[in-house]
Amino acid sequence: MIDKIILNIHHSDDYTDYLFLTAGLTNKRIIPMLDPSPTELMDRLDGTTLVVDCYSSGRNPRKNESIASYNQRTRSFNVLSRYYLAEDGSIDATQAEMARTIIQDRLEGILLSDDNLHEVYRRYFPLFWKKRKTIYADPRMFYTKAGFYYSPLFAYVPLGVMLKAIEDNQDLFRTWQGGGCNCKNAPMIIDIDDNDEGWYDDAWTLHTWCPTCSSRREIVVSEVIYYQNCIGKTYSDFVSNYGLSSLSLFDVVEELSIASDR
Ligand SMILES: [Zn+2]
User: Fold this and answer.
1) Roughly what angle, to the nearest 10 degrees, separates helices 159-168 and 225-238?
2) Domain edges within the chain
3) How much distance in Å is there from the Cα of 212 to the middle of ligand 1?
4) Distant-in-sequence, close-in-space partners of 38: CB < 8 Å, separation ≥ 6
5) CA of 126 to the centre of ligand 1 (A)
6) Cα 220 to ligand 1 centre (Å)
7) How many other CB atoms are there within 10 angstroms of residue 195's CB atom?
8) Ion ligand 1: residues, Cβ under 5 Å
9) From the CA of 124, how far away is ligand 1's center (Å)?
10) How far is the CA of 3 from the centre of ligand 1 (A)?
11) Ligand 1 centre from 210 Cα, in Å?
């Protein structure tokens, strides 16, 4: 799970520094740092931080080469400053804005990807479960995208529908196949994940969580039709033309965390 991106900006020229510094300005989960020392960088890191190196190149662009490109393997952005910075120092603001937009969209795409949201959902499930009444009462939270694309429905299943399906079918969403603990009540099934890595074509992973001792476990199964039907029914009960909320799952976590501190 990634919930924070640090832009490690390697100084090139003042204007490019400024461009990177302002690329994630509207998203507080994107944190720019200009030439941080290793200690400064380490201080901001935790297990859920992605560090993206930001470089600039002054060479001439090749034909059709993008003004800003992200390399997933090296986790780095490279911008071609020739596009917006002329040798006499004059700036092409339109081109610079284009680079900024590409960078911001790509970074937000990483944070809000289905896989990442799915991991956020699983990690914060205990909070969502505890605060489910608050979520049911607030359409912005209820209809937030939680990374579930369910192919039988050809649709995204929002957070509230998942919680409702689990709450209204608690016998089904319990596992007796062991949840890694010996508590009196069986652990809950909180997620059904298809293994789209392609290793097990028919296999699904059930993620469990025990509300009593908080232990978690993954169970591989080949049949999930009961769960799918159940989620599909709940989906049709609650989803009309509302669409998905513009509030992100990260925002929901934050609002609920603040509320629970009170
Ligand atoms: Zn337990």
Assistant:
1) 120
2) 4-111, 114-261
3) 5
4) none
5) 13
6) 19
7) 13
8) 181, 183, 210, 212-213
9) 17
10) 27
11) 5
User: Each residue's pLDDT tens digit in the chain (262 positions)?
Assistant: 999 999 999 999 999 999 999 998 889 999 999 999 999 999 999 999 999 999 999 999 999 999 999 999 999 999 999 999 998 999 999 999 999 999 999 999 999 999 999 999 999 999 999 999 999 999 999 999 999 887 777 889 999 999 999 999 999 999 876 656 888 888 999 998 876 665 556 788 899 999 999 999 998 888 888 998 999 999 998 876 668 899 999 999 999 998 765 5
Q: How far is the CA of 194 from the centre of ligand 1 (A)?
A: 25
Neighbours of 191 (CB within 10 A): 23
Beginning with the edge strand found earlier in the chain, give each strand of the sheet holding 68-71 in spatial order.
Answer: 30-34, 4-9, 49-57, 76-80, 68-71
Query: Which amino acid appears at position 54 of this protein?
Result: C
